[in-house]
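Hello again,

I reread your note about wanting to compare the complex against the isolated chains. To keep things tidy I'm splitting this into two emails, and this first one only covers the full assembly. Below are the input lines as submitted, including protein chains and any nucleic acid or small-molecule components. They are followed by the predicted structure of everything together. The single-chain runs will come separately.
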Amino acid sequence: EVQLVESGGGLVQPGGSLRLSCAASGFPFSSYVMHWVRQVPGKGLEWLSRISHDATITTYADSVKGRFTISRDNAKNTLYLQINSLRAEDTAIYYCGRDRDLIFFDYWGQGTLVAVSS
Amino acid sequence: QAVLTQPASLSASPGASASLTCTLRSGINVGTYGISWYQQKPGSPPQYLLRYKSDSDKQQGSGVPSRFSGSKDASANAGILVISGLQSEDEADYYCMIWHKSAVVFGGGTRLTVL
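Full-complex prediction:
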């Protein structure tokens, strides 16, 4: 069974940093492109970033370029998202998603909540 | 102007059909894109429903009932998710998505109410 489990969220002060993790199981993680997507509670989905199966290619939304860094450790079957210089508007649920052929996301994690507040 | 525009809300009756639209920004031709659709219920992550590019290039999500289908309206430059035989469990938020210039773009979502 494919499982994606995010962790690392929590309450952070503005200007702080956080590293989110997405533990994958039930499929050959190193063969798949992976993504991060976030959702402000009550609002829509916002794509953040993707990483190729071998981590050689990363792409970011313009809104997070320079502050967010996606990475992966295929030996640990884990996807990461480093978020720096956190702002109140980064408050959201952060989801990881598995890509299928750069066409759609076939599996999503349950999400981890990041709250930025002083 | 947003790349993908969806109506904020739609209401329909049980047993009826609902057509949810996803309009592409002027200058972006719907004919060249595959549009994928996701359903999200409160407190849960999105779930993949289907992808539609053409009648010969489409894919249904695993376990997704056939009453969920995709189409396009080229005159409106829009992708359409059609849900037939509406059930109360179809009440949810629905999002469309495309790949555009090497990035993923989501529509703003449509809240479907079944009443």
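For quick reference: The interface with chain A takes residues 34, 36, 38, 40, 44-48, 51, 59, 61-62, 95, 97, 99, 102-109 of chain B (CB under 8 Å).

B.
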